[in-house]
């Protein structure tokens, strides 16, 4: 720790020898998907059929554009690592094959498969802690495609995937928000409506950001051409010369393989060995849905979000608060009930808690612009009401 | 062996001894600052700057300035800044954009104001309990005025003959007759008076109070704006802000109908289960209708962005803009006053509470967030209204913002090296919200003035609604490990480490070098001088009697007090803690344990409420309410006078 004598010797050198960085900026590579004219990404995976991944490393556009691997035929928009040294994407290696997550060096070399997932992987994204998140299609109990997909995380070395979103909907990771959360699109099962949500990389604190994607914000045409192409460094790639090289294919979703800010690592409270979490609502009466006039929520009912079966009920305190211990990693639907047991309001899209997560809500479908009021919820003066065998040794 | 060999051996032996001695000295020196010897720190961390100043400057420790408050002369040519760390008043030539002179004042100068002519400055010396009267023409201090404890803000009466001084620690407002040079009276504050605003006619003073009223630990925090009639020198009313604390800067808008102030909305009654969307706290703007006394709170935060630690408030000369510094996120919020007034028209008694919690309203009246250097605090507007000056406290710089473009125009460097010592780095980290999720809060947000906020918190890992703990001061805790009320954190490294990030900040833990810096800063914190001690160090008769009770071994009736139940056993000098846990019967029904860390008692007078969950609002309540079975020392035999004496002694520690 202290090498003081050596330091005294080194001190003059430290004061005098200050060599400026000798790093010379290298021309960064640009990666993009090349897709047939008119092709749009598949709605439920954001993968481009018959697309492939190309890279370009200037300055001679015509000479340097090359296909990363000729075998790739179904690709997702590429993503660049925070240090700019590698690129992540999903692709199938041959027609009919499962799309997996792949990583390639920013020089176009070292292509390797990251995942060995049972379903199709898509929309992978680097996480700031060194892991990745991707969307994976789900199979039903008999192994058939369920039509849904969820978010998963795993290490870059391909550790077993950890599911972080739940339900039968289609969940597609979009990008990492500057605060470290994952922005994802949810296509609701049944209605097909879409929502934009944010989630911490451990699957906690899922939050609705937008009821649907904002105009001008999306993959394919809008994402690739309207947003990313405006970035300096990419603009030069998409020009007539390049179009000639592509021979009828269209470049979409270009990314520059260069360092970019790493969002903070969102720490985790999840304890995988547990099978329950907690749900605290401050005021079940606070709702944008509008409760029937004169009604007051007296109880809260929790249902399994997939099967629809009732898991349990708990009281709502006079101040509107309730505190439940609920099964983790399971889509839950909540219903507020009046004193007669009639449903006053219910959820359509559901929520979940991760193991050991304490999920707090201000109300039931309350305005997302509200910050909680500082008052002591009556519900936490008592132990949490256990729902659906949420205790130790329960459902897991 | 030849003589030459003996000499060579002697030289080597001497060099070895010197090296070992130097190593041990350096080790102890490091241990003093860090409590250990972190591998991330070496001599260069504090002492060597290879880029700036002369060779000597590069090696000596840095003397930072830390400008905290500003004032501009009426002609706009001179700017004065209090330099907290060097105890000086800095005079700055505005046209030349350079510092021209410094005048030594008292310790920790905070607020500075000028008289109408701009030739005389009044400087509040927080750690000297004085106000320095500075002749800016002669460039010297003309005199010192004694004040209450820890003077934090100043204001002059309209005739310039009376000086009002907000005494933060003294919880009072001194009224000083400047002609006679003496304190005429002292008005009662409302919980650590922080800043003062004067109405345009000079008739009314509005004093923000930084801390909320003392209350039972699970009640809504309520803070006060004290209204004073300047001519009669009396408190005319006390406006209360519910669910608000850290009331700081305040200004009255022209034409004098509204006052705006910076405040924080704490969420200490909610379990700390989230950080986003203001689950832990919100930055807010308070607005007072001076005709009706009605007040409105509006969040300065947005749905996914927080603007931690709102501090000073300033108003443009034309009344078009209100500026708020956010010392935690290094920016100045610009409020469009016309839009703000429009929004206020929509406030009704029914929606007032909801408005105070809406994250979408700030977009309707905030027009810009101007980036600044480290830790922006005090502000001043040039008399012509063309520039806003911002004290970048931890950058040792003044930022000038062009008010026609609302863009940073230039900075005035106060001449300190750009070197960042370990302690300075720790101070910057401590005051920055950049290391919490979405920048929601900084360490300072709960530890204003490096102290504590009088609130109690419910941290989630202990179970929701359980194990509520009182916030503890960071002043003077250097050698008082373990930390936390449950005594589980054996060092500050552990206290501020991985668990802290997982539970509270919700982002990456501090990197090892950052953690070392933060710990070094916290360990460097000292208590301000204790005003309850006589200057000569002797005790008053009451304090002396209290000392007897503190150290006694027998009750008033002559019975032996068991060793484990004597004050001095668990609270031995010099820190007045044995650094062990004890069960003094203070556990509440929601507590998971009955033993708690024995707190140190240094400057204990300044950190109410007391006991691990803050249930005792005063020192007296510890024994008259929460020691029914004499489990926290034998006090049943003591009279009211005996207890008063004991408390008078405790206040001197």
Secondary-structure blueprint:
The complex is a heterodimer of chains A (396) and B (653).
Chain A: H1 4-16, E1 29-36, E2 52-57, H2 61-64, E3 66-67, E4 74-75, E5 79-80, E6 86-92, E7 100-105, E8 112-113, E9 121-126, E10 131-139, E11 145-155, E12 162-163, E13 170-176, E14 182-187, E15 194-199, E16 207-210, H3 220-227, H4 240-246, E17 249-256, E18 276-281, E19 299-304, E20 310-315, E21 322-327, E22 332-337, E23 343-346, E24 358-361, E25 385-386
Parallel strand pairs in A: 18-24, 21-25
Antiparallel strand pairs in A: 1-2, 1-17, 2-3, 4-6, 5-6, 6-7, 7-8, 9-10, 10-11, 11-12, 13-14, 14-15, 15-16, 18-21, 19-20, 19-22, 22-23
Chain B: H1 3-34, H2 43-47, H3 55-59, E1 67-72, E2 78-83, E3 88-93, E4 98-104, E5 109-114, E6 120-125, E7 130-135, E8 140-146, E9 151-156, E10 162-167, E11 172-177, E12 182-188, E13 193-198, E14 204-209, E15 222-229, E16 234-242, E17 250-253, E18 258-266, E19 271-272, E20 281-289, E21 295-299, E22 310-315, E23 321-326, E24 331-336, H4 337-344, H5 352-355, H6 362-365, E25 366-371, E26 376-381, E27 387-392, E28 397-402, E29 407-413, H7 422-430, H8 443-446, E30 456-459, E31 469-470, H9 492-495, H10 498-505, H11 512-524, H12 541-551, H13 567-570, E32 581-582, E33 596-597, H14 619-624, H15 640-650
Parallel strand pairs in B: 19-30
Antiparallel strand pairs in B: 1-2, 2-3, 3-4, 5-6, 6-7, 7-8, 9-10, 10-11, 11-12, 13-14, 14-15, 15-16, 17-18, 18-20, 20-21, 22-23, 23-24, 24-25, 26-27, 27-28, 28-29, 30-31, 32-33
């Amino acid at each position: 720790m202290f090498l003081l004598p050596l330091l005294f010797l080194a001190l003059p050198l430290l004061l005098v020898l200050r060599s400026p960085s000798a790093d010379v900026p290298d021309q960064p590579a640009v990666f993009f998907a090349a897709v047939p004219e008119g092709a749009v990404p598949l709605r439920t995976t954001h993968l481009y059929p018959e697309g492939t991944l190309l890279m370009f490393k200037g300055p001679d556009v015509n000479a340097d554009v090359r296909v990363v691997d000729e075998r790739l035929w179904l690709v997702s928009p590429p993503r660049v690592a925070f240090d700019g040294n590698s690129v992540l994407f999903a692709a199938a290696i041959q027609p009919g094959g499962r799309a997996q997550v792949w990583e390639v060096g920013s020089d176009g070399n070292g292509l390797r498969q990251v995942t060995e997932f049972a379903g199709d992987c898509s929309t992978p994204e680097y996480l700031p802690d060194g892991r990745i998140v991707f969307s994976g299609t789900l199979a039903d109990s008999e192994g058939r495609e369920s039509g849904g997909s969820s978010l998963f995380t795993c290490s870059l070395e391909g550790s077993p995937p950890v599911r972080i979103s739940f339900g039968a909907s289609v969940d597609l990771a979009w990008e990492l928000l500057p605060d470290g959360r994952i922005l994802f699109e949810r296509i609701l099962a049944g209605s097909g409506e879409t929502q934009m949500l944010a989630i911490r990389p451990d699957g906690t604190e899922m939050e609705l950001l937008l009821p649907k994607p904002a105009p001008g914000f999306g993959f394919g045409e809008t994402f690739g051409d309207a947003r990313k192409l405006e970035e300096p460094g990419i603009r030069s790639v998409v020009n007539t010369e390049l179009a000639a090289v592509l021979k009828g294919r269209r470049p979409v979703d270009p990314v520059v393989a260069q360092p970019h800010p790493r969002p903070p690592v969102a720490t985790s409270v999840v304890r995988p060995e547990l099978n329950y979490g907690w749900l605290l609502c401050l005021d079940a009466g606070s709702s944008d849905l509008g409760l029937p006039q004169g009604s007051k929520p007296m109880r809260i009912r929790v249902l399994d979000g997939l099967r629809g079966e009732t898991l349990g009920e708990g009281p709502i305190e006079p101040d509107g608060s309730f505190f439940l211990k609920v099964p983790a990693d399971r889509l839950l639907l909540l219903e507020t009930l009046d004193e007669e047991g009639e449903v006053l309001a219910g959820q359509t899209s559901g929520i979940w808690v991760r193991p050991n997560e304490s999920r707090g809500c201000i109300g039931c479908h309350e305005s997302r612009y509200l910050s909680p009021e500082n008052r002591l919820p009556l519900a936490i003066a008592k132990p949490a009401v256990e729902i659906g065998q949420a205790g130790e040794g329960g459902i897991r | 062996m030849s003589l030459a060999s003996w000499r060579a051996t002697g030289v080597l032996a001497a060099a070895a001894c010197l090296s070992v001695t130097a190593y041990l000295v350096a080790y102890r020196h490091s241990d003093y600052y860090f409590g250990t010897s972190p591998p991330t720190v070496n001599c260069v961390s504090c002492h060597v700057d290879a880029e700036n100043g002369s060779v000597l400057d590069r090696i000596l420790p840095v003397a930072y300035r830390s400008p905290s408050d500003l004032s501009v002369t009426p002609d706009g040519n001179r700017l004065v800044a209090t330099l907290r760390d060097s105890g000086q008043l800095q005079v700055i030539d505005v046209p030349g954009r350079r510092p021209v002179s410094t005048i030594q004042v008292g310790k920790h100068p905070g607020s500075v104001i000028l008289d109408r002519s701009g030739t005389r400055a009044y400087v509040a010396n927080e750690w000297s309990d004085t106000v320095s009267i500075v002749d800016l023409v002669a460039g010297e201090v003309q005199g010192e005025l004694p004040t209450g404890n820890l003077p934090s803000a100043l204001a002059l009466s309209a005739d310039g003959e009376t000086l009002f001084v907000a005494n933060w620690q003294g919880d009072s407002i001194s009224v000083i007759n400047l002609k006679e040079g003496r304190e005429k009276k002292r008005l009662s504050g409302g919980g650590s008076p922080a800043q003062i605003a004067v109405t345009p006619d000079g008739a009314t003073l509005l004093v923000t109070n930084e801390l909320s009223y003392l209350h039972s630990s699970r009640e809504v925090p309520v803070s006060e704006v004290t209204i004073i009639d300047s001519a009669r020198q009396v408190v005319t009313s006390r406006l209360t802000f519910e669910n608000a604390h850290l009331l700081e800067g305040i200004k009255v808008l022209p034409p004098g109908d509204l006052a705006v102030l910076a405040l924080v909305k704490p969420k200490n009654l909610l379990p700390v289960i989230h950080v986003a969307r203001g689950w832990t706290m919100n930055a807010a703007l308070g607005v007072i209708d001076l005709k009706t006394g009605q007040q409105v709170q509006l969040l300065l935060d947005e749905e996914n962005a927080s603007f931690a630690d709102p501090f000073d408030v300033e108003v443009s000369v034309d009344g078009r803009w209100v500026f708020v510094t956010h010392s935690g996120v290094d920016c100045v919020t610009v409020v469009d006053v016309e839009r703000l007034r429009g929004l206020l028209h929509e406030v009704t008694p029914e929606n007032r509470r909801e408005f105070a919690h809406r994250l979408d309203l700030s977009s309707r009246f905030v027009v810009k967030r101007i980036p600044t250097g480290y830790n922006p605090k005090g502000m001043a507007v040039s008399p012509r209204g063309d520039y806003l000056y911002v004290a970048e406290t931890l950058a040792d710089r003044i930022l000038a913002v062009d008010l026609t473009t609302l863009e940073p125009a230039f900075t005035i460097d106060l001449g300190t090296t750009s070197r960042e010592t370990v302690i300075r780095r720790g101070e910057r980290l401590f005051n920055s919200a950049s290391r919490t999720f979405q920048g929601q809060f900084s360490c300072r947000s709960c530890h204003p003035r490096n102290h504590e906020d009088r609130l109690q918190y419910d941290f989630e890992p202990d179970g929701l609604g359980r194990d509520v703990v009182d916030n503890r001061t960071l002043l003077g805790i250097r050698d008082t490990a373990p930390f936390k009320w449950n005594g589980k954190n054996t060092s500050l490294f552990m206290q501020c480490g991985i668990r802290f990030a997982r539970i509270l900040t919700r982002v990456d833990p501090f990197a090892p070098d950052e953690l070392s810096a933060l710990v070094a800063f916290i360990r460097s914190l000292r208590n301000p001088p204790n005003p309850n001690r006589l200057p000569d160090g002797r005790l008053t008769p009451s304090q002396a009697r209290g000392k007897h009770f503190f150290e006694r071994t027998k009750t008033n009736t002559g019975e032996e007090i068991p060793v484990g139940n004597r004050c001095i056993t668990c609270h031995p000098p010099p820190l007045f803690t044995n650094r062990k846990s004890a069960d003094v019967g203070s556990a509440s029904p929601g507590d998971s344990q009955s033993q708690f860390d024995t707190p140190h008692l240094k400057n204990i007078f300044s950190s109410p409420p007391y006991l691990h969950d803050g249930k005792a609002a005063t020192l007296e309540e510890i024994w008259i309410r929460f020691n029914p079975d004499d489990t926290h020392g034998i006090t049943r035999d003591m009279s009211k006078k005996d207890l008063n004496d004991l408390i008078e002694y405790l206040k001197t520690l």
